Structure formats: structure tokens, C-alpha cells
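Q: How would the C-alpha cells look for this protein?
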Amino acid sequence: MGSLTNAADNAADNAADNAADNRRMLRARDAMDREFARPLDVAALASVACVSESTFIRGFKATFGETPHRYLQRRRIERAMYLLRTTDRSVTDVCMSCGFASLGTFSRTFSEIVGFSPSDFRDTSGQASRVPSCFYRSWTRPSSFGEASAGASFVH
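A: Here is the predicted structure in C-alpha cell form.
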């Protein structure tokens, strides 16, 4: 009977630890969502989560299924997609306002995630007015790196 009680106590302790770890990772993810346009490094995000850098990277990936860097890049690209669709700001201005320091890195990352260059995305996104917005957002939401195929077709 004692071993069953110990196992139940251990399971409860593990669940409490996991919940606390998840809350720490959520705090860091929320900081990334708020401050995506600023330069963010692992050390600063780990301090928000109150863990070491290596623990933060492992915990973030275990909690959200992607590394902190990949998550931040995806969030920045999502914001850039919105700005390219809804404004007439230059690609360079969109790049800088989304937290990228280099237009080349922005364009390469955008193309890897979305499957189109930022300019091509802007040119074809005007066609989306013929599609219900819920479908359009589902089709264009980047979920991970490398999902867009090189020959991906946009809404025609």
C-alpha cells in the first residue's frame, strides 16, 4: 500500500512541476509575442522563464513543439504577411518593423516559410478577396519551417 501512495504522490508532484514549467514557458512565449520586433536572445527569454538557457530551449521545444528561434521567426513572418497584405509599405520597411536586421535574411526566411518571396506574396495576396477570410488565413498561416513547397501555388 505504501508504494501505491508514493507513486500517487510522485505523479502529483510531477504534474505540479509540469504545470509550473508550462507557465514559465508561456511567460517567455508571451514576451516573444509582445516584443517580436525587438532583438531577443535566448538569455533574456530564459531569464523571463526563470530557467537556464539550455533548460529554456529544451523546455520550450517540449512544450510548444518548436525551438524558441523558430517560433520567433514564424511570428515575425506572420506579422510581415499581415503588413504586406494590408499596407503599401516597402518590403524593407516591413522587414525592419518585424524585427529582422537584414533584408536578405528576411527574404530567405519568408520564402522558406511561405513559399513565395515577399514581393510575390504581396502581388498574389490581392487575389484573396475572392476567398472567405477564414479559408485564406488557414491556407496562408505558416506553421513551421519548410512546409511551403518550392512550387507551391497560391490562391488563383
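The chain has two domains: 2-65, 70-140.

Residues 2-65 form one domain.

Upvote if useful.
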